[in-house]
UniProtKB/TrEMBL annotation:
NCBIfam families xref list: PRK00977.1-4 (NF002140), xseB (TIGR01280)
Name of protein: Exodeoxyribonuclease 7 small subunit
Its job: Bidirectionally degrades single-stranded DNA into large acid-insoluble oligonucleotides, which are then degraded further into small acid-soluble oligonucleotides.
Subunit structure as annotated in this protein's UniProt entry: Heterooligomer composed of large and small subunits.
Gene: xseB
Pfam families (UniProt xref): Exonuc_VII_S (PF02609)
Amino acid sequence: MTDATQAKPVDFERALAELESQVQRLEGGDLPLEDALKAFEEGVRLTRQCQQSLDAAEQKVQLLLAKRDGSLDTEAFTPRDDS
């Protein structure tokens, strides 16, 4: 295994917060080109990491909802109204 595959993955919330920070830096428009490219590259990496975390969570949910016959027991999501 390489160092990248052995490294402990950063939790989703931390990666998302860092991604938001990179987006804010880029939206500021005052970064030199080289710094903007580095921030963009980091943003792409963080986006992929967040997507992998979401995919893994979805797989876990599907496993938890799977019936013995292999079909999924699904129901529509209804958001709570916290107001």
